[in-house]
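task queued by scheduler; priority normal; single chain, no ligands, no partner chains; default sampling; output format set to structure tokens
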Amino acid sequence: MLHFSEDPTITRFVPHAVAGAPGPEAYVWAVEADRAPDYWFPRDCPRAMAWATPETTEADRAHVLGPGGGDRVHAVEYGWLGALQTVKLFAYRLPAASFEPFDGPVSHAHVATRPVEPLGPAEPVGDLLRLHEEAGIQLRVLPGLWPLWDTVITTSLGFSGIRLRNARPRGEFSAPSRPHPR
């Protein structure tokens, strides 16, 4: 199990209730390695993500992922690009036996209800843009996430939105009415 943090000094994870999490229960949250890319972002960075599944139609793949887009897209807002490029992110490895799958809307997450000690020191995650590139994940930088999100949730793609409460409000952004001068 993995937990991502900007704090490399954690020696014990204690369950706590998280603002915006489903339900008021106190947990230690973690994910399996296949979901690690969902967390290659600054903690509070809103992101919209979509990926092809066996049920994904070719029309949805073409519409959202686009030609040459691979099987997965992550999107952030321009205002978060600097933080994405400079954040120091760390991964903690946690004992799988301490966790159980979370039975709720965050089906990929695992939770512990008791304190958990990492299996070793935090490991630097490294250059987040490079990690996306090496994993073949398309990374989009958008004025706002809502148009993409509103499309993705109506498709046959798998999707996840994290920290969307931190996204720019709907309607606060729009496409430029004319091209920028070169």
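post-processing summary
- The chain has one domain: 2-166.
- The longest helix spans residues 58-65.
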